[in-house]
Amino acid sequence: MLQLHVWGPAFGLPSIDPQCLAAIAYMSQAVPQPKWKLIASSDPTLSPTRELPALRDDSIWIGGFQNIVAHLLEKSKGQWDLDRDCTSQDRADISA
Q1: Tens digit of pLDDT for each residue in 61-82?
Q2: Enclosing H/E stretch for 2
Q3: How far apart are CA 78 and CA 3, in angstroms?
């Protein structure tokens, strides 16, 4: 099971950190719920980049939102790509 470690909750949100919220939103939309678990943390040293969010995939740790998304895309062979149905124009607009 994937474990997503994020800065802990505050103000009724699962985290107040923008990258953590982005990772939670991405995982919620892309990865089936039984395959991952959200863990409130305050230890960025878990991550090789020394930042949260951090994703634990068995013995592998991935730090940072972009790195987590890249890992999920590779792990799922593109199945968990939220942009998979976008045209090249759509992708350009997203990047802009």
Answers
A1: 999 999 999 999 999 999 999 9
A2: strand 2-7
A3: 19
Percent of the chain with pLDDT over 90: 84
Interior angle at CA 48, CA 59 and CA 60, nearest 5: 15
**Strand locations in 35-90, DSSP E?**
36-41, 54-57, 60-63
Residue 37 confidence (pLDDT)? 97
**Is the model's pTM score more than 0.85?**
yes
Rounded Cα distance between 35 and 87, Å, is 28
Q: Edge-to-edge strands of the sheet including 2-7?
A: 36-41, 2-7, 54-57, 60-63
Tokens standing for residue 20: 């953590």
**What is the distance, to the nearest Å, from the Cα of residue 21 to the centroid of all Cα atoms in its chain?**
9
Element (H, E) at 93: helix 88-95
